[in-house]
Amino acid sequence: MSLWMADALGRAPMAAPKDWRARLRDWADEVELVPDLAERVGSLTWFRGLFTCFGLCATALYLSPGFQPIPGLPGARLDDAHYDEVRSQMMTPLALGADSGRHMGATDAVQPLRETPERPQIELSAQIGSSDTLGRALSRAGVSSGDVATIAAMVGGDISDGVKPGTALDIILGRRVSRDRPRPLDKLAFRARLDLALELTRAGGVLSVKRIPIRVDNTPLRIQGVVGDSIYRSARAAGAPPKAVQAFLRVIAGQVDLGGIGAGDRYDIVTEYRRAETGDVEVGDLLYAGLKRARGKSVDMLKWTRDGRTEWFEASGVGERRGVLSAPVAGRMSSGYGQRRHPILGYTRMHAGIDFAARYGSPIYAVTDGVVAFAGRHGGHGNYVRIQHGGGLATGYAHMSRIAAAPGQRVRRGQVIGYVGSTGLSTGPHLHYELYRNGATVNPLSVKFTTTAQLAGAELAAFRARLAQYQGLRVGIHEAFAQKAAAAPAAAGK
């Protein structure tokens, strides 16, 4: 019979009774066994869902097989011969006694030596460190104190100025008499100077020294070029040594503002440069600094020694150098001379100097020659240096992080006397610079100096001859490479 029956009177058909699966689905939808636990927190439905979650978790843990590892088959046991061969090929670090290659391990047939034989000679390579001496370097290498004293006596005159840091030492130590005695020095070879190499050898138990002269070319190095975005980068790209470029900038900074040097200006650098036939070079002091500017003052400065005193002179030959005091630090002036509101004390008072904003640790230079009258802690000035220059003039440098001058020391223009800091009454790293006239402070920007060189006669002629010699030098090989490199892109663009 059909599940649907129609009433004889024409009424709507009646639904057949549901089976148990349909009734279970309806009950589950009504009861909501797995509600969302993030909604209706604390309600009866939420607690029912929580208990359901705990029940399922407990059932899963109860039915789980456990966390114990599943046992496997044991590995095959190796006999002694196979184990010994495998051990010799393991990737064990050498420090733990590993072998290399397919070697068999030692057996009972191998008898250990009662005494390990010594090597007849030991060859070493050492190096002179910074602030090091030849004697200390040899002692670290294992040379006996007696041999070190003998070497010092034999070569002391050749290394009176010390051995240059980084110098390589080739050492050979011989066989020692007994194990409680140091090995004797059989041979020592090193470069004493750019123009001299030394070899010490032992023959018949006695050390002897052989001096090997090295030819050296002392022609100064001249480098010219055009300033690009930076005069320092341009000079370094042309092959100028860093030491020469730094000295060049210090000299030029005393004559013109470095910030005013622009692209298109030409620089000219002549520096001491020693070339050995072995290829080694040694950069010396700057000799000539020239700057040809498209706009503004050009500079020609020549180093000249007179009466044992070395100074920089203008190349004009008039024997006179004019200008304001050189800048005491590489930085911008951040505060001028006069009345101002003190940034720490909070009231207006006299600012008896000028401030230069500079990086912490920047070197501070003496603006001109003089004698250090004071160097130490000085109240609100912090670390402070005062220099007497004669004629009633003196300069003061305050807030230093470190002082590099001592009372009574004679300093020259451009000499480092300290480093920028923020000691005393200071809100940040800077240099407070003061100028005194007869003990009273004056505006440092109001004082100018004139230095007379007093070159005349034969000395002036020698000065001009030296200048002509430097200006006639051939440009260094580095500059030739730089010119070729600069011309290559231009030729490619044609």
UniProtKB/TrEMBL annotation:
The keyword Hydrolase applies. Keywords: Hydrolase, Metal-binding, Metalloprotease, Protease, Zinc. This is M23ase beta-sheet core domain-containing protein. The lineage of its organism: Bacteria, Pseudomonadati, Pseudomonadota, Alphaproteobacteria, Sphingomonadales. It comes from Sphingomonas bisphenolicum. The keyword Flavoprotein does not apply. Residues 349-444 form the M23ase beta-sheet core domain. Its cofactor is Zn(2+). InterPro entries: Cell_wall_metabolism_enzyme (IPR050570), Dup_hybrid_motif (IPR011055), M23ase_b-sheet_dom (IPR016047).
